[in-house]
Specification:
Helices cover about 20% and strands about 30% of the residues. By secondary structure, the protein is of the alpha/beta class. The chain folds into 2 domains: about 5-220, Spore Coat Polysaccharide Biosynthesis Protein SpsA, Chain A (Alpha-Beta Complex), CATH 3.90.550; about 250-420, Hexapeptide repeat proteins (UDP N-Acetylglucosamine Acyltransferase, domain 1), CATH 2.160.10. Strands 12, 13, 15, 16, 18, 19, 21, 22, 24 and 26 form a 10-stranded parallel sheet that branches. It has an 8-stranded parallel sheet with strand order 14-17-20-23-25-27-30-33, with no helix packed on it. A 7-stranded mixed sheet has the order 5-4-1-6-10-7-11. A hairpin with a 2-residue loop joins strand 8 and strand 9 (about 145-150). It starts with a strand and ends with a helix. The structure holds uridine-diphosphate-N-acetylglucosamine and calcium ion (CA). Calcium ion binds near residues 102 and 224.
Amino acid sequence: MENEAAIVLAAGQGTRMKSKTAKVLHPIAGQPMVAHVVNSVRGAGLGRVYVVVGHQGESVRQVVNASECVTQSQQLGTGHAVDQCRSHLEGFSGPVLVTYGDTPLFRPETFRKVLDFHRDQQAVAVVITAEVTDPTGYGRIMRQGAKVQRIIEHKDASEAELAIREINTGTYCFDSELLFRYLTAVTPDNAQGEYYLPDVLPLMVADGYPVLPFLLSDASEAAGINDRVQLADAEAVMQRRTAEHWMREGVTIVDPSSVYIEADCRIGMDTVIQPGTCIYAGTEIGTDCSIGPHAVLEGACVGNRCSIGPFAYLRPGTRVGSDCRIGDFVELKNSVVGVNTKIPHHSYIGDADIGSGVNIGCGTITCNYDGQTKHRTVIEDDVFVGSNTSLVAPIRLGRRAYVGAGSTLTDDVPAAALALGRARQVNKKQWVEKHGK
Ligand code: UD1
Ligand code: CA
């Protein structure tokens, strides 16, 4: 909705990551964490989304679906970051959701609930809070009864305050006009010398405006990522959620803890994902397939009733038709395979167009690269390729052709022909006796 706005803070470097890459660009389930945040905000139905960028701002801009990216050239704190959006929200009187680019696990439904709560309670500010067992690093919620009084940052907290286990998740819903009015009064008088966004809260409270907590029922949504240990923890939460999603859609995942599935995939009903399988972004799998164990699919497309693996590697640009069998140690790259074709073992198929009903024997290799250019291999319907064959591309095997095992083929094969591309076998009789062995 255009009468609701969001600000996503993503300008920081994230020094605790110890990385050349800005923290918010580190991927979770194959997507930069800030992209998850913006997608969830959009998923909650917010129309105006501003992303505050700074460190590697150009790269951040590329990966987010923002209405506008606003540059914060110096990272003087979360309050200062929000203030960069002041002119963009001039005259806007609706609610503004503020969230951080390093808390990627919020669900769209949660953002929606918070906006509705803010409206229904007529609160000036709502802070999403969570009860966690280890609150290290987070701002602590100082309550007065059912209301929030202020937030103390970990670095500024006393011994007693550090014991508080209700934390600031870094997501808030504000009345936009009041937010910008109070931001002008925030000062950097704290351990980090920063303009803290949560410092607007006690100022609002002092003027009699209610600030309400919205306590999360699922604290795992609040996980903020500051270092690589937290990155892996967030990935684990995301993987569990993704697996649960697909299981609820009718996919069997035999051992969810060993399977990795990125965002932007599709998996059909009654497909079984065997242990150790990785399904990367853009992969589409049909119904009734068996995938794995230990198959890797990178943006590949697989039809219905296929068996892929164990240990198959389907790389980008691969499209496998229905009822195919792609077996162990088979690598497919940028290749199209028709229906009912079998490539059961130990093959490399790159830049190939393979028809239907084809059988590719064990150890077949498409020699697609001449050192300079890649060439295509075309194998028409119902071809039989014997084991241990090298197909030197560009090459075409016509319909129903046969290739003798162990061939190295450099020329096209006409339809229905038998091609033999190897030295004829010689048997030297009584060779053993003649050589006195
Ligand atoms: C912040 C909160 C803390 C909360 C925690 C939740 C403040 C002062 N503290 O702490 O109460 O518990 O998040 O995870 O807000 N950013 C900018 N510009 C800046 C500073 C930060 O864009 O000048 C962005 C960062 O890129 C990051 C986010 O804001 O995505 C949060 O900044 P970070 O420094 O990680 O805040 P925390 O110390 O984690
Ligand atoms: Ca943080």
